[in-house]
Amino acid sequence: MTNVVIIEDEPLARDKLRRMLQNLGEPIEVVAELGSVAEVKHWLATTSQAVDVIFSDIELSDGNVFAAYEHDMPPAPLIFVTAYDAFMLEAFESQGIAYLLKPYSGAKLAQAWQKFKQLTQKAAAPSAHTQPANEPLQRIAIKTAQQVYFMRTGEFAYIKADGNLIMGFDQQNRRHYLPFPSLQALEKHLDSRQFFRINRSEIVNVDAIDKLERYCKNSYLVLLKNGAQLKTSQSRTSTFNQWLR
Question: For labeling, which of 82, 91, 118, 200 is most exposed (least CB within 10 Å)?
Fold first, then answer.
C-alpha cells in the first residue's frame, strides 16, 4: 500500500485528484487531506504517519505552501499540482520530483506516478555494499527530479545546514541536497575521525582543508581546497584544535 497525502485548498480539485489516483489501479490510500498552510505546518510538526508521497498545490487559501516547507522538511517526495509555473525551481529544491500544471490529464498524472515509483525502487534497491549499522556512513543516495545518484561521504569537502535544507559541497564546490532532516541526524552517521562540526551549521572534512588562519582570538578561518572559506565558532575552536592533533 502506498500512503498518499493531498494538499489542496479547492474541494473540486481535491476530489478530481483522488478519483484520478484511484484510476491508476494501484494500491493507494489517501491518509491525509490538507487545505491551508496552517494545516500543513501543524501536520508536518505533529504527524507520525508513514507517508510515501505528497501531492501538493502551491498557492493555498492562506498563503504559499513553501512557507510550511521552509519550517519543516516534508517527510516524503513531493509531486506538485498547481496552476502556476513560476515556482518550478523552488519546487525541485523542496524535494519535488514532478510538477503538474492544471489542468492536467490522467496520462500526465500517470507519468508523474511512474517517476515516483522508479525513484523509490532505485533508492530501495539492495546493494552489495550495504552499510553495517555500527559503522560510519560511507555513501549517500541523493534524489533529484531526474535520477538517484550516489556519492561517497569522503567526496564532500563540507556539509552545511540552511534552515531545513542539508547541503553537501563537493571538491569542486558543487552543491548537493542531502536526504537528512537535520545536521545532527547526519553528523551521528559520519566518521568522527574525518568530519568535524566547526559551528552550528557547518561540518568540515579534514581532508579538504588547505590551511587555517587566525580569524580572531578564539576563531579560525578555515580555507578549503575547493575555494570555500568557513569559520569556527568560538565555542568549538578549542575542541577543533584538539581534534586536529
Answer: 200
